[in-house]
Every structure is written in C-alpha cells, then in structure tokens.
Amino acid sequence: MLQSLGADKVIDYSKEDFSKSGDNYDIILDTVGKSPFKGSVRSLKKNGKYIRVVHMALGPILKGIWISMTSSKKVIGGQIKETAENMVFLNGLIESGKLKAVIDRTYPFEQIIDAHTYVEKGHKKGNVVITV
Q1: pTM assigned to the model
Q2: What pLDDT digit, counting tens, does each position of 44-68 carry?
Q3: 82: domain range?
Q4: Are 110 and 87 contained in the same domain?
C-alpha cells in the first residue's frame, strides 16, 4: 500500500528495526510513535529530518530541540493547528493528488469503543473514521 502511495522504501517495524540496519535516511516520518528516538536521529543523513506527528514526552522534545540547534539534523514534532489556512492547503494537496487519504475502517458512532480498541492495537493501515 505504501509503495502505491509513492514510498521509495517500506520497512515493516514488526519485523525489522530500521535504526540498526546501518542505512541512513533523508526523512524518517513516525506517524504512530513506534520508532526509537535515539536510533531514528542516529539513522538520519546530514541535513536529515526526523518527523514525529504523535505525542512526544518532555525528554525527547528537549533532546530534539538540542539536536536541531547543534547539528544539521532536525527533529520536528507535534501536530498542525487546525486553522482555515492549513485546511485550505491540505485540501489543495488532496485535490492535486499529492496527498492521498487512506481509510482502513469506518465505524458508526455507536461503535466508537471498538474503533479505539482497534487503533490502540497499533496495526491499522490508514485512518479509522467514525461516522456520526
């Protein structure tokens, strides 16, 4: 699925720890919080970026700021603000085909507990949608 979306290389985190392979990457994008912080930063090329879009604890946040200030590598974390400008930008990416939303499963609101249980197992392949 990821290759069909344009990924050059796909690594199954449940079978391989990419940070121990010796390979180096321009960008490491962690959307679920499964990559090891220290190993991810170590696996970046010069001027590489480690992007983590899920919650980071205070320790990695402070380490990320330090790494970004003292090296060519950048650690970026957090979520975008849901501003009208950002939503228009995302909509433009979707309409142009540069961003493709992947829906794994859809649950009715009445099954929201089942949806959360499924997501927390950590094996979803895309987004989980709750219909209201």
Answers
A1: 0.67
A2: 999 999 998 877 788 888 999 999 9
A3: 1-100
A4: no
